[in-house]
């Protein structure tokens, strides 16, 4: 999936991130509203609450209203009024056969202007339509695989309580998990759990997930920065109801003149698994790319971890990683055409106005958020993207160390 980032602009990257947040939060659907004094479920241990959710009877469908909050980008940097960047309210629908739709509408009275975003998924593909730029971003969702490489479809269904306990124990080797806290979601009894990285968490303070105690539907997801009690990104429903959803709800199409951006890896089907080995290592990757790969042994105090070939179209690129966990840094390198300009020079269709930075006298651009930083610049026909859950100063040091 990181290969998708190899050749997309900042505008496309942020739109994709917004769509991914919506889909990951959704799972089968949705999000929750804050506690409003409604009924709460009885106390349960986390394994039992999770097992009960995974084995709950299927629902014919679910729909309601949602609120999406996004504090990743300062309002002063947002142009064009994209709800994915400025946050918005809207509606959602999900069917029992795996179809999902989010509709976000920006506040017409707000500073960010008007516009709407449609997110559609069917379990195999996802599309995000941004009316502000009249652009459709399409991608193929990766197929789930078990630890032994087998498909989830061949896994234990439904999972036993012992299996859930084992998986939670393995997860707790890397993260700290709270208990299943009884709460209520838009009048529905629910459980909520807090997840925090134990080490190498970068700027991420934790995440929270809530689900319906009766139906097992995912009901809330939020990401927090270190030291901040308010979520940076949150999707929640202000209204929710269960019942069949007409299939016509998911039969919508963007305007015929919309620009379509395919974010799928080469071949267009991320659900197809192949035994073709990945190309890794500095020397093997160098043989496949048409530019000198810059991969110092250390970067911003982090040791080099891996060099991997990225190939999503006719251009091959390199991904170099440093450090471990969320505190690591990734560097994407790719050749650019002579007439290709940065989004600062071309305007990037007005989606974002990013601060400019100097990388050894070269003008680059920086996007610093509470959860991480992205720095981009071009030098000698090669485009470099540095990103990680690190402060802006650390990302700039890493960019300037690429020599």
- For the record, the CATH architecture of the largest domain stands as Clam
Distance between the ends: 27 Å
Low-pLDDT stretches are 1-36, 109-113, 145-154, 266-274, 342-351
- Assign the CATH class of the largest domain: Mainly Beta
Reported for the largest beta sheet, the result is:
13 strands, mixed
The dominant shape is globular
Mean pLDDT: 80
In CATH terms, what is the fold-level topology of the largest domain? outer membrane lipoprotein receptor (LolB), chain A
Structural class: alpha+beta
* CATH-defined superfamily of the largest domain: Lipoprotein localisation LolA/LolB/LppX
Query: Which sequence of SSEs, written as H and E, runs from N to C?
Result: HHEHEEEEEHEEEEEEEHEEEEHEEEEH
Q: Strand percentage, roughly?
A: 35-45%
Helix content: 10-25%
Tell me the Rg in angstroms. Answer: 22 Å
- How many domains? 2
Count the helices. How many? 7
Q: Give me the count of strands.
A: 21
Structure in words:
With 403 residues, the protein is an alpha+beta fold. The protein has two domains: 2-250, Lipoprotein localisation LolA/LolB/LppX (outer membrane lipoprotein receptor (LolB), chain A), CATH 2.50.20.10; 275-400, Protein Transport Mog1p, Chain A (3-Layer(aba) Sandwich), CATH 3.40.1000. 15% of the residues lie in helices and 36% in strands. The protein has helices at 10-26, 46-54, 83-86, 161-171, 282-286, 343-346, 392-400; strands spanning 61-70, 88-95, 100-105, 116-121, 125-130, 135-140, 175-177, 181-185, 188-197, 204-212, 218-225, 233-242, 259-262, 298-299, 302-311, 316-322, 329-335, 356-359, 362-369, 372-379, 382-388. Strands 1, 2, 3, 4, 5, 6, 7, 8, 9, 10, 11, 12 and 13 form a 13-stranded mixed sheet that branches. Strand 2 and strand 3 (100-105) form a beta hairpin. The protein is globular, with a radius of gyration of 22 Å.
């Amino acid at each position: 999936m990181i290969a998708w980032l190899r050749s997309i602009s900042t505008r496309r990257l942020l739109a994709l991130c917004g769509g991914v947040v919506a889909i990951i939060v959704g799972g089968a659907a949705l999000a929750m509203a804050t506690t409003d004094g409604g009924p709460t479920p009885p106390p349960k241990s986390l394994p039992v609450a999770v097992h009960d959710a995974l084995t709950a009877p299927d629902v014919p469908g679910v729909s309601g209203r949602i609120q999406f909050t996004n504090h990743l980008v300062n309002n002063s940097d947002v142009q064009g009024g994209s709800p994915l960047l400025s946050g918005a309210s809207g509606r959602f629908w999900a069917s029992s056969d795996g179809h999902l739709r989010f509709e976000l509408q920006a506040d017409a009275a707000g500073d960010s202007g008007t516009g709407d975003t449609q997110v559609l998924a069917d379990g195999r593909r996802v599309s995000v339509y941004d009316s502000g730029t009249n652009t459709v971003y399409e991608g193929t969702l990766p197929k789930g695989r078990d630890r032994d490489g087998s498909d989830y479809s061949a896994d234990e269904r439904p999972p036993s309580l012992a299996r859930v306990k084992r998986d939670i124990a393995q997860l707790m080797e890397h993260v700290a998990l709270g208990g299943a806290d009884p709460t209520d979601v838009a009048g529905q009894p629910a459980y909520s759990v807090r997840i925090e990285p134990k080490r190498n968490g970068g700027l991420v303070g934790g995440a929270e997930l809530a689900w319906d105690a009766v139906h097992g539907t995912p009901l809330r997801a939020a990401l927090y920065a270190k030291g901040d009690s308010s979520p940076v990104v949150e999707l929640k429903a202000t209204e929710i109801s269960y019942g069949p959803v007409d299939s016509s709800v998911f039969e919508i199409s963007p305007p015929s003149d919309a620009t379509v951006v395919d974010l799928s890896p080469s071949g267009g089907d991320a659900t197809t698994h192949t035994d073709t080995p990945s190309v890794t290592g500095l020397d093997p990757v160098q043989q496949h790319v048409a530019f000198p790969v810059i991969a110092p042994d250390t970067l911003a105090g982090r040791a080099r971890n891996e060099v991997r070939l990225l190939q999503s179209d006719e251009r091959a690129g390199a991904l170099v990683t440093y450090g471990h966990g969320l505190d690591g840094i990734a560097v994407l390198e790719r050749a650019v055409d002579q007439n290709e300009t940065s989004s600062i020079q071309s305007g990037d269709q007005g989606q974002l106005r990013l601060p400019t930075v100097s990388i050894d006298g070269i003008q680059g651009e920086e996007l610093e958020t509470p959860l991480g930083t992205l720095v981009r610049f071009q030098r000698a026909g090669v485009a470099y993207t540095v990103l990680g859950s690190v402060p802006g100063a650390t990302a700039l040091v890493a960019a300037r160390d690429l020599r």
